[in-house]
Design a protein that fits this description.
The chain is mainly alpha-helical and about 90 residues long. It contains 5 helices and no strands. Helix 2 packs antiparallel against helix 3, helix 3 runs antiparallel to helix 4 and helix 4 packs antiparallel against helix 5. About 30% of the residues are buried.
Length: about 90
């Protein structure tokens, strides 16, 4: 799905960000937190650029990042990212 969205919609489309979020979720569920963060941050970058900081999708991406930090026991960074989602 990501390859198709990149080709058809481009790298800065909200649906492309959704694909990155979905890939991040798979890594997150596998416990591969470093790769999950990479994918979630790709989604967040697109959403900030295209949708802005106050869009619900942007908040969801911050929340996904919080979940990774929480799972890693990195509560300091979890709180930092969580505050951005508010």
């Amino acid at each position: 799905a990501l390859e198709i969205r990149l080709r058809v919609l481009g790298p800065d489309h909200p649906d492309t960000a959704t694909s990155y979020n979905n890939i991040g979720m798979v890594y997150h569920e596998k416990g591969d937190y470093d790769n999950a963060l990479v994918e979630y941050r790709k989604a967040l970058e697109i959403e900030l650029k295209v949708l802005g900081p106050d869009h619900p999708n942007t908040a969801e991406s911050y929340n996904n990042i919080v979940g990774v930090y929480y799972a890693k026991g990195d509560y300091k960074n979890a709180i930092v990212e969580y505050c951005k989602a508010l």
